[in-house]
Each structure stands twice: as C-alpha cells, then as structure tokens.
Amino acid sequence: MNKKRRILIVDPANSPKSIQSNPDWRLLLVCSFRHMPMAREALSQGANVNCRRFDYLTPLHIAVQHNDTELIQLLCNQPSINTEARIIDGLIPLHKATFLGHKTAVEELLRNNVVINCTDNLGRYPLHYAALRKDMESASLLLKNGANVNVYDDFHESPLYTSVIRRPFLPMINLLLSHGATVTSGPNQISLCLLLEAILSARSASDIEILDLLFRKGADVNTTDLVGLRTPLHIAAMTGNSEVIV
Predict the structure, then answer these.
(1) Where are the ANK repeats (predicted)?
(2) ∠ at Cα 69 (67, 72), nearest 5°?
(3) In whole angstroms, how large is the CA radius of gyration of the chain?
(4) φ, ψ for residue 21 (rounded to 5)?
(5) pLDDT digits over 28-82, tens only?
(6) Top-confidence range, 129-133, 154-158, 242-246
(7) Phi and psi dihedrals of 34, rounded to 5?
(8) Mind listing the pLDDT tens digit for each residue in 78-99?
(9) 92, exposed or middle or buried, with CB in 10 Å at 0-12, 13-18, 19+?
(10) Which of 5, 45, 50, 10 shows the shortest CA–CA distance to 29?
C-alpha cells in the first residue's frame, strides 16, 4: 500500500535562521503538515495563534484549507484567536471553508461561534460562495446558524442572484426562497433587477422552470426597471420568448 507524502517547499528568503527558535514559524509549519502534537507544543511555547505566513495565511486559514477539524478546534480554543483574520483578498476562515466546499470545516467553525455575516473585499458573504459552488449542505448550515439571506455584494448581487443567473441551480433557489430570499434589486442598483435579467437570459426548459418558481414564490409580474420602465412582459416580447409570455 502506497503511503502519501506531503512535501512543503519553504522559501529560504522568508524562513528564519532557526525554525526551532521561532515558535510562530514552527506553528505555521506544523499546521501545514497537520501535526497536532507539534502544534500543541508550539502554542505552549508562546506561538502567536494569529501569526501569518508570507502569503498572509494564518494557522486557522491553513487548518481550514486542509479541512482539519481537530486542528481547527485546537486553534479556536486559544483565548486570543482571531476568527475574523483576513488574507489578501479579504477572505476570513469561514469564507475560505465555504469557497473550498469543506463542509466539515464550515461546521466546526460555526460550532465555535464565528461571525457568519462577514464580507470579503468584493462584499461577498460566505452564503454567496455556497451558492456559487451549489453547495446545499454548507448553505443549509449557514442559514440554520443565522446567515442573512438577503445580502448583496459590491456588484449588487445576492446569493439568490448567483443561483438564478450565474450558477442556475433549482434546489439552491428553493432553499434560499424558503428562508425568505426576495426577488428584489440590491440597494442603489440601476441595472435590470433579478427577475428581468432571468427573463432576458431564459433559453432552456430549466430556465423557464426557474422563472415559474420565482413567480409562484411572489415575484412581481409588473415590476419595472429603473431606466426604461420595462416590465417582464416588455422583456419577453423584446426577446421573442413566447414560452415566457405564455
């Protein structure tokens, strides 16, 4: 039976003269190796649980990256842990766990009461990433633990928008709507609203099925855009989509 080996390449320019004399560097290293005893030892010797690697990853980000719930628990048990530490793109550990589809890591972080309604540099919430990945389990966990379903990123897009327009997925749409998602525009949005965009881009039978669901869940058939005051019927007629009109 072949054993898997992990190889860690360390940039000599960024490594300290002696790893043994630097508990922070040692903690980052052993988290990358997922070595629990040495992680405990580094913490007991005063390693900063919020220290960062050269790429700005903290030990908790690294543990999440490996989907290592035991290591996540160890780090979250440290009194000074910052569960909202951000890396370069603004992702906190919960963002990263959701982005990677690591459901057990998401569950462990939520068990440790991390902040759930947080944004990255694009204004995206963890729920946006669950919708993007079509990850029903993570989305359900987030919603069950208090994630706000009607949130908008810097592009005025909600998780529902992601599931209707960017990554169409009927089960996710149903889940979000069942938790109170609204088919409305983001604040200060001047482009077409979600419903009008869905009609404009409807091509397949599955697209029509999504539209039917939105209408059954209360989407306003008389809604208009903010520029031309066009209704869903105007958009359907403009595109010649008779299935939508019917």
Answers:
(1) 89-121, 122-154
(2) 100
(3) 23
(4) -90, 0
(5) 999 999 999 999 999 999 999 999 998 999 999 999 999 999 999 999 999 999 9
(6) 129-133
(7) 60, 50
(8) 999 999 999 999 999 999 999 9
(9) buried
(10) 10
Closest CA to 121 of 91, 84, 147, 159: 91
What is the DSSP secondary-structure string of 139-170?
HHHHHHTT--SS---TTS--HHHIIIIIS--H
Give the position of tokens 């066009």: 230
Q: How far apart are CA 158 and CA 180, in angstroms?
A: 12
Q: How confident is the model at residue 18 (pLDDT cuts 50, 70, 90)?
A: low
Q: What are phi and psi of 93, to 5 degrees?
A: -55, -40
Task: Judge whether residue 218 has pLDDT over 90.
Answer: no
- 10 Å CB burial of residue 238 (0-12, 13-18, 19+) is exposed
Of the candidates 147, 63, 43, the residue with the CA atom closest to the CA atom of residue 108: 63
* Per-residue tokens: 43: 């913490």
* pLDDT confidence of residue 246: 52
Amino acid making up residue 219: A
Q: Three-state DSSP class for 233?
A: helix
Amino acid at 122: L
Instruction: Label residue 27 by pLDDT band (50, 70, 90).
Output: very high
